[in-house]
Design brief:
CATH superfamily: Ribonuclease H-like superfamily/Ribonuclease H
CATH architecture: 2-Layer Sandwich
Strand content: 15-25%
CATH topology: Nucleotidyltransferase, domain 5
Radius of gyration: 16 Å
Order of helices and strands: HEEEHEHEHHH
Helix content: 40-55%
Structural class: alpha/beta
Distance between the termini: 29 Å
CATH class: Alpha Beta
Strand order of the largest sheet: 3-2-1-4-5
Number of helices: 6
Number of strands: 5
């Protein structure tokens, strides 16, 4: 995995001096209709601490309405238990398959609704913003993102499935950048 020297210096400053601005609990969401990854990261005294993460899965043989209801009810439970201070979600980006984009957009809407009902501030990040924040390179592949999530959160292995690692990357992105918005 290639990481730029400038990014390593930036990362070391965060680790050494604790340049996060305030303690907070962040939930990162990687939305999807089949799989929605989620990850809860605490920022405590300038350190990133993973609390919980997982993936909400639905199945193709279920109706879209049932799948969205499962997503809603599961996110409700996660948010009510975790009580996050911030909700960070990935921006929807598709260039070809409009059908997939529509259904993923519906899942995103359910996630937004669940956070809004609890008055949790919502922040949206593009895939390239997430990759830059976590790896220092806007075109990083899934493995590079996963490796940096593992490193930044001091995990023993890369969280699986990829949706879960991506959700943690989104939470990390918020920890690194929310004061800059």
């Amino acid at each position: 995995m290639e990481i730029s020297i400038a990014y390593l210096r930036f990362f070391c400053q965060f680790k050494q001096f604790g340049l996060y601005y305030e303690d907070m609990r962040i939930i990162g969401i990687d939305p999807g209709i089949g799989r929605t990854g989620w990850g809860i990261v605490d920022v405590e005294k300038g350190k990133l601490i993973v609390q919980k993460y997982g993936c909400i899965e639905t199945f193709k043989d279920q109706s879209v309405g049932d799948r969205l209801l499962i997503l809603y009810k599961t996110l409700e439970k996660i948010l009510d238990e975790a009580k996050p201070d911030a909700f960070a979600i990935e921006e929807l980006f598709f260039n070809t398959n409009t059908t997939t984009a529509l259904v993923v957009g519906q899942a995103r809407g359910v996630a937004f609704l669940t956070a809004a009902q609890r008055a949790i501030p919502i922040s949206v990040y593009t895939p390239s913003q997430i990759k830059i924040a976590v790896t220092g390179y806007g075109k990083a592949d899934k493995n590079q993102v996963g490796q940096m999530v593992k490193t930044l959160l001091a995990l023993k292995s890369i969280p699986k499935p990829d949706d879960t690692a991506d959700a943690l990357a989104i939470a990390i992105t918020h920890a690194f950048s929310y004061k800059m918005k």
